[in-house]
Every structure is written in structure tokens, then in C-alpha cells.
TrEMBL record:
Gene Ontology MF terms in the entry: undecaprenyl-phosphate 4-deoxy-4-formamido-L-arabinose transferase activity
Pfam families: Glycos_transf_2
Protein name from the UniProt record: Glycosyltransferase family 2 protein
Top-rank taxon: Bacteria
UniProt keyword list: Cell membrane, Glycosyltransferase, Lipopolysaccharide biosynthesis, Membrane, Transferase, Transmembrane, Transmembrane helix
Ranges where the Glycosyltransferase 2-like domain occurs: 4-150
Gene Ontology CC terms, in alphabetical order: plasma membrane
Length: 319
């Protein structure tokens, strides 16, 4: 087995060294490498990572020029990973490195392309738990995630899926969204979850909003279609209301109140506008998805041509 461990590093000068040491110990029986990606840390993380690269032959180190965000750092790390399996793990010890073998064993036993970890009890702050719940709820509708699957940052990905993910060249990668563009052969296994060893999470309200918008808009046409359906419903209600008003006026010969005509015009016009914007957005969305790197298909197993036997009639001399 050949394994790569990708670690996005951000302000973790106190934990990244012990984490790499522990990885070297618990994976000693495996052929593996470690890819450290420093995401513009403001502390001494870069120097520590350089020392680790010098100390261990199987450690690769990449430093980004500024803080691009966790998903961007992970995508960078995936571009430098060469293992048959690639495991992404955080730098804060909340996921024990020993659990990597649990992910690998589950992938080999079940043949999954991707294996996510889930926890019996999460040790995150309540705000991060709230953000995780919100993102997981949105992804159920936007990228087709199974409802009972938890999208954790600690996961295993087969190299064939990694090869498709790194084709993405846009500025806003969402690793789980890219995974579900490629495969639905996804599993989950329970692993322990620990409290942070040092410091506090960098998961802020600003990052939560950015991630939510990225998931909601960047990886699906679902938002456009929601507003298209809403506009269609409003337009339909407006037409029905107008028809009811007309029939009532013809049958009862009553004078229509001015406010009813105004309200009917507003509802019908708003519905028509939303419907038009939805159709226009559908065209723009198709163009966006076409240029976002989404492959038309992904082969799991390539066809191998088998030489055909020679035709004896074709080889026989002409009479």
C-alpha cells in the first residue's frame, strides 16, 4: 500500500511537529509520505515545516504566499500527493493519526472511492457544530450528498478520484463538492474525536458565510431552479386570481376594488419577472458549470483493446 497524508497547516507551530512524529510512529509499517501545506501562517509554522522536511525523507513541504483558505491549501496538497490512497487530516490533533489506518481498512474492505470519518461525540465549539450542520444540510440538496452522511475534513480519497479533483482550476475549490462531481461510491466510518491540543479554531462567522455561499452558489444550479419554481408559482397564482376576479365581475356585475387590481398586477408581474430571471439564470448557470471544470464523465476502469485473431480467409492467397 502506498499512502499520502495531506495536512493543511495554519498557525500550528506547537502541534505540527508532534503530529508528524506521531504519524511516523503509527504508520511505520506502511509506505507513505506526508505533504505539509503552510497556508500563510503568521507564527513559526513555516520554519517548523522546513525543519521537518529536512529531518524526514518522506515529508514534502509547500508554502503558500498568503492565506488562501483551507480548501485551497488542501487542493494544493492533493496536487503533490502520489499515494494510492490520500488522507486529509487537520493539524490540531482532534483526529488521532492512528485512525488513518481505520479509514484505509474500511476503504479496502468495502471498495469505496472516498471514506469520511464521523464521530460519536464531537468536541468542536457549538458555533462550529452549527456551521457544520448548516453546510451539511445545504450539501444534501446542492451536491446530492446522502442525508445521513457527515462531510468531515478527515477523509480518505482514492488516487483515481484525486486525479479528477485536481483538474479544478478555479479560485473557489470546495473539496466535497468536487468529490461528488466525480463519484457516489462514498462510505463512512466512526473514529474518535478529541479536543484541540493547542489554541482555538480559526472557524469564524466570516468563513462560515463564505463557505455557505460557495456551497450554495458555486457547485449547483439548485438556487436558480428554486427561484424559477417560485416565480412560476407566483405567476400561476396571479393568473388564477385574475381569472377569478374576471369571472366574479362577469357573473355578479360588481365593481372591482382598485386595490385588488393593483395587487393582482404586482403578484403576476413579480412572478413573471422571477420566471424570466430564472430561465436567464439557467442559461448562465449552464455556461458557468460548463467552464467550471466539470467533466462530462469519469471512467472507473479504462477499456483495454484486445488484438483480434487474424482472418484466415484474408490471409489465404487469391486464386
Amino acid at each position: 500500500m502506498n499512502l499520502s497524508v495531506v495536512i493543511p497547516v495554519y498557525n500550528s507551530e506547537r502541534t505540527i511537529g508532534p503530529l508528524v512524529d506521531r504519524l511516523q510512529a503509527c504508520l511505520a509499517g506502511q509506505v507513505f509520505d506526508i505533504v505539509l501545506v503552510n497556508d500563510g501562517s503568521a507564527d513559526g509554522s513555516e520554519m517548523i515545516c522546513q525543519q521537518l522536511e529536512t529531518r524526514f525523507a518522506n515529508v514534502k513541504f509547500v508554502s503558500l504566499r498568503r492565506n488562501f483558505g483551507e480548501f485551497n491549501a488542501v487542493l494544493c496538497g492533493l496536487n503533490h500527493a502520489n499515494g494510492q490512497y490520500v488522507v486529509i487530516i487537520d493539524d490540531d490533533f482532534q483526529n488521532p493519526p492512528e485512525a488513518i489506518l481505520t479509514l484505509v481498512a474500511h476503504a479496502e474492505a468495502n471498495g469505496h472511492d472516498v471514506v469520511y470519518s464521523h464521530y460519536a461525540q464531537k468536541q468542536h465549539h457549538w458555533f462550529r457544530n452549527l456551521g457544520s450542520w448548516l453546510v451539511n444540510t445545504l450539501t444534501t440538496y446542492s451536491i446530492g450528498k446522502p442525508r445521513n452522511l457527515y462531510l468531515s475534513s478527515f477523509k480518505l480519497i482514492r488516487s483515481e478520484v484525486v486525479a479528477e479533483i485536481i483538474r479544478y482550476r478555479g479560485p473557489y475549490p470546495y473539496i466535497d463538492g468536487l468529490i461528488f462531481r466525480v463519484t457516489r461510491n462514498v462510505g463512512s466510518v466512526e473514529v474518535p474525536h478529541n479536543a484541540r491540543a493547542e489554541g482555538r479554531s480559526s472557524y469564524t462567522f466570516r468563513k462560515l458565510v463564505g463557505l455557505t455561499l460557495n456551497v450554495f452558489i458555486g457547485y449547483s444550479l439548485w438556487p436558480i431552479r428554486v427561484f424559477t419554481v417560485f416565480g412560476l408559482v407566483l405567476f400561476g397564482l396571479g393568473l388564477l386570481a385574475g381569472l377569478a376576479l374576471l369571472i366574479g365581475w362577469l357573473v355578479s356585475a360588481f365593481i372591482l376594488p382598485g386595490w385588488s387590481i393593483v395587487l393582482w398586477g404586482i403578484v403576476t408581474g413579480l412572478g413573471l419577472q422571477l420566471l424570466f430571471l430564472g430561465v436567464l439564470g439557467e442559461y448562465l448557470g449552464k455556461l458557468f458549470m460548463a467552464y467550471s471544470g466539470l467533466p462530462p464523465y469519469v471512467e472507473k476502469k479504462q477499456a483495454v483493446a484486445t488484438p483480434s485473431a487474424p482472418n484466415p480467409l484474408a490471409l489465404s492467397p487469391k486464386l
